[in-house]
Amino acid sequence: MRKKVYCTHCHGEMSVAHSALSSVCPHCNKRLVLENFKIKTYHAVREFATTGDVVVEPRGRLVANVRAANLIVDGEVRGAIVARERVSIHKHGTVKGDIDAPLLAIEAGAMLDGFLRIGGAAPVAIVRKKPAARKRVAAKK
Amino acid sequence: MGDSGADYPTTIGADASFTGKLKFEKGARLLGAVDGEITTSGDLLVDKGGKLAGQARAGNIRVNGEVTAKLESAGKIQLGASARLEGDVQAAKLEVAEGAVLIGHCSIGVKSSGNGVKTASAPVEQVTPRREKSTVRK
Question: Which DSSP string do the residues of chain A spell out, in sequence order?
């Protein structure tokens, strides 16, 4: 069984095995993480990118620029968020940072502070065109 | 979801356009175009086809039309499926329906004073200034 995912770097479409944990994008040749994550404690990195879902649990605190398909916040997230599908901020969730996603769900009691870009067109794939094959010219005698 | 006349006693019709400051005691429903400032302690509804530019302050704000304004609400801001909002949003609660477009800075649930300064949740302790030591040697 295979599933369709989109590269977090170039937004190119690719097909991967359903149980695959990582892959390489055939368009930009960058490594892709395909797993779903649960953040239960403090986790700080420069960039946290996956084609799967990220769930920040109530005691979780994620300090990073996040790229994911779906992001569910029950704890705290600090950093820019780019979601392919949906961002959900639950009752006790806190988000401080910009959000770029097609859908946003905020429960009463959630805290949100940042620049939002919700709805609009989906990101366009940045795909490099393969160079045209060179034609062999027969040598003139 | 019916919008009763009791919730929005004032209606600005679809053929009306207004430029300037508007102030209502109770709710208002906007079907036309308003460019300016709207202030109401009741609810504000920018219905489908309505256009609002400038600034709006209300108890609760519902948007189904086009808004290019700064929205401030003491209660809830709701964006319907046909809503298009470009501007800053400040409210206690925010509801975004599927299909709504929202572009702008949002402060939801963050307490702030009237001049935009965010207040800390805990009171700030007063600091007693230290006495400066004299540098003159006797």
Answer: -EEEEE-TTT--EEEEETT-SEEE-TTT--EEE---EEE-SEEEEEEEE-SSEEEE-TT-EEEEEEEEEEEEESSEEES-EEEEEEEEE-TT-EEES-EEESEEEE-TT-EEEEEEEESSPPPPP--PPPPPPPPPPPPP-
Q: Is the pLDDT of residue A60 over 50?
A: yes
- Mean pLDDT for B91-118 is 81
Structure tokens at B17: 């356009």
What pLDDT is attached to residue A11?
A: 86
pLDDT at B121: 39
Residues A54, A74: contact at Cβ < 8 Å? Answer: no
Cβ contact, residue pair B100, A110, below 8 Å: no
d(CA B89, CA B110) in angstroms, rounded, equals 11
pTM: 0.79
- Chain B stretch 88-117, residues whose beta carbon is closer than 8 A to a beta carbon of chain A: 89, 93-96, 98-110
Domain ranges of chain A: 1-34, 35-123
- Res. A133: pLDDT tops 70: no
CA distance A44 to A61: 8
Asked if A105 and A88 touch (Cβ cutoff 8 Å), the reply is: yes
Flag if A111 and B110 touch (Cβ within 8 Å).
Answer: yes
Residue B135 has pLDDT above 80, yes or no: no
Q: Which chain A residues touch B109 with a CB distance below 8 Å?
A: 109-112
| Selected residue with higher pLDDT from A125 and A73 | A73
